[in-house]
């Protein structure tokens, strides 16, 4: 099951959150500031992040930005003791899933985290699959990528051969190599995965 | 009883001029010495004179008019006329002449008694002239003039004054203080208190309030016209509404700003308090919810107890926030009270810390060992201090990397309690006390302009200076009060 990362400069609040999540069987790791999280967390481990808005050093929003830059897929829940509507709107626009104003009903927080744990599972699985796909495509030569890009565009081998100025037989060899290197049963499956994850194969 | 010869002597001695005319012919048959003196004729010269010889040549003193007047007395017993006689030397003498019919032994006669009314007429003319001068002067000098009796009843007032007082034309004006507030400086007086000030002149202000219009302010002087306090008072005032209304408005504006200062002080604090209370309350909520879950699942009882204990500690933390706020706001927030400037700074430091901590700005307070007793409105001075600190913090918040610190120092110097707030920022970039103050990024501060006003109202001074090589210093000084003075106890 995914775990929870708690980032809050208030030690008492951190400790109480860890206690709360342990009581409902959720593992929680905690950090006194945003930089500690960035230094210590495992980006591939499925998780939900709970972060305070105002903290010394990087603010909660700064952390959100850093995590977006790293394509970190964890759902982010904000907590703040400063009531500010604009603040919550801004964080939600950038993909935060929830915004809690302290003091809040802890039951609401538990329920929000529990529902986000399932979301986290799915998002991290997707991220893992995408990483794997990128890694497989990364093994292709640039010529093979040119061929793959045209297959994705739905072109026939003959058309691809004409465009690239090679024989149809050569195109077929490339197709066989692409299948072998990426370990797929058919190019159709690969094309579906590439489109699903929105991967740009020409790079 | 008087004898008849004595009556003759009385007529001869009388200062009233007497001419006796024969009723039928209207010819003069006698004149007393007073009449002879005035007309400059002897009795024998006078008797043959005809009317044109001794009256003004003006048409209204024609002989026929004179005859008619005397005849009217003959017919009706008496008749009065304003008659202009002419003396031998040609001088015209206006008189009020009374003709009375009298029955002598053998004939009927008319006695004319008259006296020179020139002096009365001159005086009357002079009075009228004076009156019109007063009116003209009051019109041109924008002056309002009124005279008052000792009890404050208005005896005379110029038309403008009556209009200002709201007295209808022709109505009895009544007492001044029924129409206007009598003021001297900022205090309100009644008429008798004003009279005590008059020695023999006092300055005075009148404030006249009427429905639907701005109040009218009159300003001037009142003077006692006699040494006897039971006599008349003359008041000359002019319209000072513009100046005094502006003063009035300024005072109201100041009150409003002090209200705002207090309001903002509360607003700033409310934000800080909301945050400070939110943390422990959230933590307590977390613990109690956990305790509930653990209890429901019938798990480790010790964990339940630990959770409840932890929640109680968080509630205690919240309570301590509440008491620090209570001690800051206190009971006497609107009163001047004697307090130690160090205590105010201590109370505020909590809020400075609350704002500085999330920005990792170091705040150092050097309060010193010396007592700094001052007489002040605690909340306002606290707000002025907070304002200097928040400015310093805001200045540093925009910087990164370098050392970011705020240093607060308290000391006494030359009879003043001084507090200075130094920051390690860029130094002053603009006139900090100017109206065009750079907007505070947080927008909730009351600004240095208002701090300046607060400090000035407490008889202190406020300053700002650029430090070398960087940073700035803001500070204020309040007069120290002696240890045994100025307490509110």
Provide structural commentary.
The complex is a heterodimer of chains A (203) and B (489). With 203 residues, chain A is of the alpha/beta class. Chain A has helices at 11-23, 34-40, 60-69, 85-93, 106-137, 142-152, 157-164, 168-182, 187-197, and strands at 3-7, 28-31, 47-52, 76-80, 98-101. In chain A, strands 2-1-3-4-5 form a 5-stranded parallel β-sheet, with helices on both faces. Chain B has 13 helices and 19 strands. Chain B is rod-shaped and about 150 Å long. The model of chain B is unreliable at 434-446 (pLDDT under 50). Chain A binds chain B through residues 9-10, 12-13, 15-17, 19-20, 22-24, 54-57, 79-83, 101-107, 109-110, and chain B through 271, 274-291, 293-294, 303, 307, 310, 313-314, 317, 357-360.
What's the quick description here?
By secondary structure, chain A is an alpha/beta fold. Chain A has 9 helices and 5 strands, in the order βαβαβαβαβααααα.
Question: Count the strands of chain A?
Answer: 5
What string gives the helices and strands of chain A in order? EHEHEHEHEHHHHH
Number of helices of chain A: 9
CATH level 4 superfamily of the largest domain in chain A:
Response regulator
* Radius of gyration of chain B, CA atoms, in whole angstroms: 46 Å
The mean pLDDT of chain A is 89
Structural class of chain A: alpha/beta
- What is the overall pLDDT average of chain B? 82
End-to-end Cα distance of chain A, whole Å, is: 35 Å
Domain unit count of chain A? 2
Largest sheet of chain B: 7 strands, antiparallel
Task: Give the count of helical stretches of chain B.
Answer: 13
Which quaternary structure do these chains form? heterodimer
Which ranges of chain B are low-confidence, i.e. pLDDT below 50, for 5 or more consecutive residues? 434-446
Q: Order of strands side by side in the largest beta sheet of chain A?
A: 2-1-3-4-5
Distance between the termini of chain B: 89 Å
Sheet of most strands of chain A: 5 strands, parallel
């Amino acid at each position: 099951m995914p775990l929870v990362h708690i980032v809050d400069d208030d030690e008492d609040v951190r400790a109480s959150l860890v206690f709360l999540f342990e009581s409902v069987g959720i593992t929680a790791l905690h950090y006194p500031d945003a930089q500690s999280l960035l230094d210590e967390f495992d980006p591939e481990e499925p998780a939900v992040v709970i972060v305070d808005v105002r903290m010394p050093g990087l603010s909660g929003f700064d952390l959100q930005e850093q995590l977006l830059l790293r394509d970190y897929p964890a759902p982010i829940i904000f907590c703040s003791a400063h009531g500010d509507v604009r603040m919550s709107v801004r964080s939600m626009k950038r993909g935060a899933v929830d915004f809690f104003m302290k003091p809040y009903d802890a039951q609401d927080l538990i329920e929000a985290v529990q529902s986000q744990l399932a979301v986290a599972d799915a998002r991290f699985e997707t991220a893992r699959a995408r990483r794997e796909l990128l890694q497989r495509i990364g093994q292709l030569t640039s010529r093979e990528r040119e061929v793959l890009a045209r297959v994705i565009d739905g072109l026939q081998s003959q058309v691809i051969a004409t465009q690239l100025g090679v024989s149809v037989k050569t195109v077929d060899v490339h197709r066989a190599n692409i299948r072998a290197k990426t370990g797929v049963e058919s190019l159709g499956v690969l094309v579906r995965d590439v489109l699903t994850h929105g991967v740009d194969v020409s790079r | 009883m008087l004898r008849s010869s004595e009556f003759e002597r009385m007529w001869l001695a009388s200062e009233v001029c007497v001419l006796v005319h024969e009723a039928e012919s209207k010819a003069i048959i006698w004149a007393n010495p007073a009449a002879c003196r005035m007309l400059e004729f002897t009795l024998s010269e006078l008797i043959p004179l005809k009317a044109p010889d001794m009256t003004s040549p003006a048409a209204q003193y024609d002989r026929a008019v004179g005859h008619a007047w005397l005849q009217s007395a003959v017919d009706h017993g008496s008749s009065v006329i304003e008659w202009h006689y002419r003396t031998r030397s040609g001088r015209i003498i206006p008189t009020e002449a009374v003709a009375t019919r009298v029955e002598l032994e053998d004939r009927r006669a008319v006695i004319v008694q008259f006296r020179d009314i020139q002096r009365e007429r001159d005086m009357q003319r002079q009075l009228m002239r004076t009156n019109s001068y007063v009116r003209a002067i009051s019109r041109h000098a924008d002056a309002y003039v009124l005279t008052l009796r000792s009890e404050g009843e208005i005896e005379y007032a110029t038309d403008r004054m009556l209009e200002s007082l709201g007295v209808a034309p022709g109505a009895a004006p009544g007492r001044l203080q029924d129409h206007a507030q009598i003021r001297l400086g900022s205090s309100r007086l009644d008429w008798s208190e004003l009279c005590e000030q008059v020695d023999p002149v006092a300055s005075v202000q009148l404030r006249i309030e009427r429905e639907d219009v701005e109040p009218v302010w009159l300003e001037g002087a009142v003077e006692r016209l006699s040494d006897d306090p039971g006599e008349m008072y003359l008041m000359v005032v002019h319209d000072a509404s513009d100046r005094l209304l502006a003063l009035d408005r300024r005072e109201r504006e100041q009150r409003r700003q002090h209200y705002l200062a207090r309001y903002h002080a509360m607003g700033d604090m409310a934000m800080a308090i909301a945050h400070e209370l939110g943390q422990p309350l959230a933590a307590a909520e977390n613990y109690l919810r956990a305790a509930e879950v653990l209890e429901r699942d019938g798990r480790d009882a010790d964990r339940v107890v630990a959770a409840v204990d932890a929640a109680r500690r968080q509630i205690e933390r919240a309570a301590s926030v509440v008491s620090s706020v209570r001690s800051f706001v206190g009971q006497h927030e609107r009163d001047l009270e004697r307090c130690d400037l160090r205590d105010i700074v201590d109370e505020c430091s909590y809020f400075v810390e609350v704002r500085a901590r999330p920005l990792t700005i170091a705040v150092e307070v050097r309060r010193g060992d010396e007592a700094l007793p001052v007489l002040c409105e605690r909340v306002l001075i606290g707000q002025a201090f907070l304002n200097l600190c928040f400015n310093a913090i805001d200045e540093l918040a925009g910087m990164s990397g370098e050392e970011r610190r705020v240093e607060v120092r308290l000391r006494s110097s030359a009879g003043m309690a001084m507090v200075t707030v130094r920051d390690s920022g860029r130094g002053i970039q603009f006139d900090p006390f100017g109206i065009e103050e750079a907007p505070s990024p947080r927008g909730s501060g009351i600004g240095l302009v208002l701090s300046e006003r607060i400090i000035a109202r407490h008889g202190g001074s406020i300053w700002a200076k650029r430090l070398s090589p960087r940073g700035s210093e803001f500070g204020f000084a309040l007069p120290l009060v002696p240890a045994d003075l100025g307490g509110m106890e």
